[in-house]
């Protein structure tokens, strides 16, 4: 058994940020990562053309801003180079290929007992004991695909957006993209650029902005109230894009930043999708999928069409509850924080969560610094600092 002050589960941006903040407070920790690399979601499960939609100043990890020479909006390659430099700067050494199978709080010892499978050494079980446990496995642990009647009998290809790389293999194919968030919109655009015939399901109202406009809005939030910023950038977006309702796209009645705070749902950052929709390169289906019959997809308004491929850009779900046996100290039944923002990061019995506030990279730094500060304060009170 290995004993340490803090065990962090997950070596994505949240886990790395938390480890750096702990190190700066001289708090011993171990990171357990199920994959063979840091930031595995970014390295292995993002499509090739992806760029960060937020400006670099909102995507920095703690104590290491992006250099002035970096572009305002980072490419996947640039961001991963930044991650590698972050790991090197703070001398972060995750224990890779450690699949955490169980984490239980021992009431007698007042410690967390974590069991992890070492998938490199004949699946050896390793045991760790810690005063504090940080869940940093992220919001995007496992792709979610809705249970659509007939889906199992679909005669084409079904993939989740997590596994989508690029559209070249889908040239001349009819592809249905289900989900109109940032991933769905960008995948539809990528498909159209590679000669596919994409359709996208957009049944709910959605805010659409350029990267530059969202950047401007986030900057204004430091000086103006949310409702005023929402009104200003919504007006500017309407001037930019015109009336999109004739294309099957409706705008929510509430503002984008208000909705982000309320629901965690982000506005869509347009990378060229709207122009492709207006040009007819991408078809909008403003109705939900009701059922599937072989290659035919039937929609709620009785419209039906045959497709070769269905891409589900329908989000993710946290799987922390599958291994965190005493999850109720910090999480709800869906694997998300039971406490609302800004107290979402702290649970009971020394249990914390980082990067689960639905605020993306922007929220990671705040979570990591808050967790490290709280752990340091507790250790100082106990005489362990």
UniProtKB/TrEMBL annotation:
Organism: Quillaja saponaria (Soap bark tree)
Organism lineage: Eukaryota, Viridiplantae, Streptophyta, Embryophyta, Tracheophyta
Family annotation (InterPro entries): Auxin_biosynth/cation_transpt (IPR050982), FAD/NAD-bd_sf (IPR036188), Flavin_mOase (IPR000960), Flavin_mOase-like (IPR020946)
Protein name stated in the entry: Flavin-containing monooxygenase
Stored SUPFAM superfamilies: FAD/NAD(P)-binding domain
Matching Pfam families: FMO-like (PF00743)
UniProt GO MF annotations: flavin adenine dinucleotide binding; indole-3-pyruvate monooxygenase activity; N,N-dimethylaniline monooxygenase activity; NADP binding
EC number: 1.-.-.-
Entry similarity comment: Belongs to the FMO family.
Reactions this protein catalyses: indole-3-pyruvate + NADPH + O2 + H(+) = (indol-3-yl)acetate + CO2 + NADP(+) + H2O
GO biological process: auxin biosynthetic process
Cofactor: FAD
Pathway of action: Plant hormone metabolism; auxin biosynthesis
Keyword vocabulary terms for this entry: Auxin biosynthesis, FAD, Flavoprotein, Monooxygenase, NADP, Oxidoreductase
């Amino acid at each position: 058994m290995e004993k340490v002050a803090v065990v962090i589960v997950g070596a994505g941006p949240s886990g790395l940020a938390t480890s750096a903040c702990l190190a700066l407070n001289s708090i011993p920790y171990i990171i357990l990562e199920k994959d063979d690399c840091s930031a595995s979601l970014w390295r292995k499960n993002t499509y090739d053309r992806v760029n960060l939609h937020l400006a670099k100043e909102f995507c920095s990890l703690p104590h290491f801003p992006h250099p002035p020479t970096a572009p305002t909006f980072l490419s996947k390659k640039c961001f991963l180079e930044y991650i590698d430099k972050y790991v090197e700067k703070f001398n972060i050494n995750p224990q890779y290929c450690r699949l955490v199978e169980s984490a239980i709080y021992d009431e007698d010892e007042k410690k967390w007992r974590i069991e992890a499978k070492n998938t490199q050494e004949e699946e050896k079980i390793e045991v760790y004991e810690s005063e504090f446990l940080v869940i940093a496995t992220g919001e995007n642990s496992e792709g979610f695909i809705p249970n659509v009647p007939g889906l199992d009998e679909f005669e084409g290809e079904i993939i989740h957006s997590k596994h989508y790389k690029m559209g070249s293999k889908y040239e001349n194919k009819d592809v249905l993209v289900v989900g109109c968030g940032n991933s769905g919109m960008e995948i539809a655009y990528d498909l159209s650029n590679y000669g596919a015939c994409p359709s996208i399901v957009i049944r709910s109202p959605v805010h659409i902005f350029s990267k530059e406009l969202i950047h401007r809005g986030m900057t204004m939030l430091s000086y103006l109230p949310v409702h005023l910023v929402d009104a200003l950038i919504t007006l500017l977006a309407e001037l930019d894009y015109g009336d999109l309702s004739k294309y099957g796209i409706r705008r929510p009645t509430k503002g984008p930043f208000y909705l982000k705070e309320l629901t965690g749902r982000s506005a869509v950052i347009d990378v060229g999708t709207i122009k492709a929709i207006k040009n007819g390169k991408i078809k909008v289906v403003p109705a939900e999928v009701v059922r599937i019959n072989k290659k035919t997809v039937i929609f709620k308004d009785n419209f039906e069409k045959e497709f070769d491929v269905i891409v589900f850009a329908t989000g993710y779900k946290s799987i922390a509850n599958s291994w965190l046996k005493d999850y109720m100290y910090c999480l709800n039944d869906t694997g998300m924080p039971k406490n609302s923002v800004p107290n979402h990061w702290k649970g009971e019995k020394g249990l914390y969560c980082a990067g689960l506030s639905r605020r993306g990279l922007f929220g990671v730094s705040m979570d990591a610094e808050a967790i490290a500060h709280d752990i340091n304060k507790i250790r100082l009170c106990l005489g362990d600092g």
